[in-house]
Structures are given as C-alpha cells and as structure tokens.
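check this:
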Amino acid sequence: MPPSDTKSRIQAVARELFVQQGVQNTSLREISERLGITKPALYYHFSSREDLVRSIVQPMIEDVERFVSTREPGGDARELLEDYFELIWRHREVTLMIVREMATLGYTDLGQRMFDWRRRLIVLLLGPDLTQAQHIRATVALGGMADCTVEYAHLPMEEVKPTAVEAAAAALGLS
C-alpha cells in the first residue's frame, strides 16, 4: 500500500479515536493496533502524537486562513455567514476534538489563530469601525454557529445550517 494511503488511514483512525476518547487518552499503540500496523510503521509517518495531531488540525487551519484572506470587506454578509458555516461544518470533527480536550490547542498556535480569524471575520461582516455592542453580537453570531457544528454534528448539515445562519444574522442585526 502506498505510504500516502497509510498516512491517510492513520490520520482517519487517529481523528476518530481522538474525537471519541480524547487525544491524551488515545495511545499511538492503540492507533497502530486498530490499523494492523506496527508502532514503528506509525512513527515512520508521524514522529510523535503532537506531529499526528498537527497533521489532523493543519487542513482546517489552511482552509480558514484561505477563507479569511480571500474575502473582501463589504461583501454580502449573509453569504459570508453561509460560506463560513459550510467551512466550519467540514471541520467539525477537528473542532470537536479540540473542544473535548482544550490541551490540543497547545500542539499548534491554534488558540491565538482562532481569535485572529474571528476578528478578521467580524471586520469582513460589519466593517472596521464597530461599537462594543456590535463586537459582542458578532462574537455571539460566529461562536454560536461554531457551537452548532459541534452540538448538532449528528444531524445533516441541511437541517442545521439554515437555522444557525438565520440566528447569526439576527444576532448581527441583518435583515
């Protein structure tokens, strides 16, 4: 089997176990046994648990960075909310993994990045000159949508997205 396929399989099994049990409660031995590979074979692809976690989180980081850096202020706010919801929905397992075990944030500079993303999204949604109340509403809107991707991850996106986006738009005072 090609190394990239093994690497992808390791990431998939690790993501599943990390979401179910937490990062610290999942051993690399458990991952390798589930896959039917040796622990040295796992280490061939990932030098440590931290390296494996980073590899699982990195696609989300890249997607959100690309999202916030390619959008222009003054666009359609509702469309931005809809697109952002779809983005965070795609990465809901990683978000759940992080929420269940906040120490995961320590494997990357993800905590600070998340605050930076939120600030950039707020400017994209409402512009740079905001009142404190607008900032608070935007935080509630974006945070609430993110929470919905975790809390309702078991439902189809089509059932969650319209209500989550509508609630976020209402929090922002959008018609």
The chain has a mean pLDDT of 89.
